[in-house]
């Protein structure tokens, strides 16, 4: 199994498919399994997909008692890309992964071909997130049996949950088999809260950018996506009706279609 050795971490990664490289960066609490086998299979039919576990997540190792930062995790992502044998790639970042992707594009812009920011925000005082959700994010149930229902409430609107209860329960049982320790989860949240944000620097993002967001996202309301698209020069915004923070699971076919269309466009200003 491939690993990248960092001064203070050991990072697990996987490479799938062939084609233009696409680096996937996961959010808080997730690991490579959270992308879903179908999602990876569809993307890897057109791209060389590089997916990895953020420090402390999945099969990666790092000390959660240390002070982790979003900037540090952006450097982790670059180390994974280079270890996989690529100098430059498209980058797709989800939730916290979108924050890491922003830092990657701002700190190492020459390495980012096209940028996709999904269900994420700019951090800092300009990011919109309710105090209620912040408290809820900090109160993950201790027992795995209760975590599936907790994630479902956070990630999906009531109507979608009601129609897909059995499917979601089954999916989260699989995802939570390799759940991260609580101290790692809290260390990732600490990194998000510690991040000063990208608002003032977003106009410096020079690569074509697509922002994707669910219109019913409770964790990071869609206003965050609108703000990113407003600040990044030439950025495109795709909003998904009826979808929450887990919009890629809810609207998987449309998300993959829009993502592949954007990555394959000769003219990124063209409508998707």
Intertermini distance:
37 Å
Total beta-strand segments: 9
**Helix and strand succession?**
EEEHEEHEHEHHHHHEHEHH
Provide the number of structural domains.
1
Q: Shape, please?
A: globular
Largest sheet: 9 strands, mixed
Strand content: 15-25%
| Mean pLDDT value | 94
The CATH topology label is: Rossmann fold
Oligomer: single chain
CATH class annotation: Alpha Beta
Q: In which range does the helix fraction lie? A: 40-55%
Low-confidence regions: none
The CATH homologous superfamily: Alpha/Beta hydrolase fold, catalytic domain
CATH architecture: 3-Layer(aba) Sandwich
In DSSP terms (H or I, runs of 4 or more residues), the helix count works out at: 11
What report would you give on this structure?
β6, α3 and β7 form a beta-alpha-beta unit. The chain has a single domain (3-129, 182-264), classed as Rossmann fold (3-Layer(aba) Sandwich), CATH 3.40.50.1820. It has helices at 37-44, 70-83, 96-107, 131-137, 144-155, 158-163, 165-175, 182-194, 223-231, 247-250, 252-264; strands at residues 3-6, 9-16, 20-25, 47-52, 61-62, 89-94, 112-118, 209-214, 236-240. Strands 1, 2, 3, 4, 5, 6, 7, 8 and 9 form a nine-stranded mixed beta sheet that branches. The radius of gyration is 17 Å and the shape is globular. It is 40% helix and 18% strand. 46% of the residues are buried. It has 272 residues and is of the alpha/beta class.
């Amino acid at each position: 199994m491939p690993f990248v050795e960092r001064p203070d971490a050991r990072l697990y990664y996987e490479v799938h498919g062939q084609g233009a490289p696409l680096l996937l960066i996961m959010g808080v609490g997730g690991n490579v399994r959270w992308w879903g086998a179908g999602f990876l299979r569809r993307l890897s039919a057109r791209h060389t997909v590089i997916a990895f576990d953020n420090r402390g997540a999945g099969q990666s190792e790092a000390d959660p008692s240390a002070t982790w930062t979003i900037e540090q995790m952006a450097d982790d992502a670059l180390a994974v890309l280079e270890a996989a044998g690529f100098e430059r790639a498209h980058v797709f970042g989800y939730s916290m992964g979108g924050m890491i992707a922003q830092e990657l594009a701002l700190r190492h812009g020459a390495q980012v071909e096209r940028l996709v920011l999904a269900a994420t925000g700019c951090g800092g005082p300009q990011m919109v997130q309710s105090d209620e959700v912040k408290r809820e994010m900090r109160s993950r149930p201790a027992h795995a049996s209760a975590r599936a229902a907790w994630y479902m409430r956070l990630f999906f609107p009531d109507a979608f949950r009601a129609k897909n209860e059995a499917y979601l329960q089954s999916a989260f049982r699989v995802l939570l088999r390799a759940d991260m320790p609580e101290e790692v989860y809290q260390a990732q949240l600490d990194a998000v809260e510690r991040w000063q944000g990208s608002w003032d620097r977003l106009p410096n993002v020079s690569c074509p950018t697509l922002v994707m967001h669910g219109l019913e996202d409770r964790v990071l309301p869609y206003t965050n996506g609108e703000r990113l698209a407003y600040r990044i020069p030439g950025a495109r915004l795709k909003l998904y009706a009826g979808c929450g923070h887990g919009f890629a699971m809810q609207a998987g076919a449309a998300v993959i279609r829009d993502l592949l269309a954007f990555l394959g466009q000769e003219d990124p200003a063209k409508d998707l």
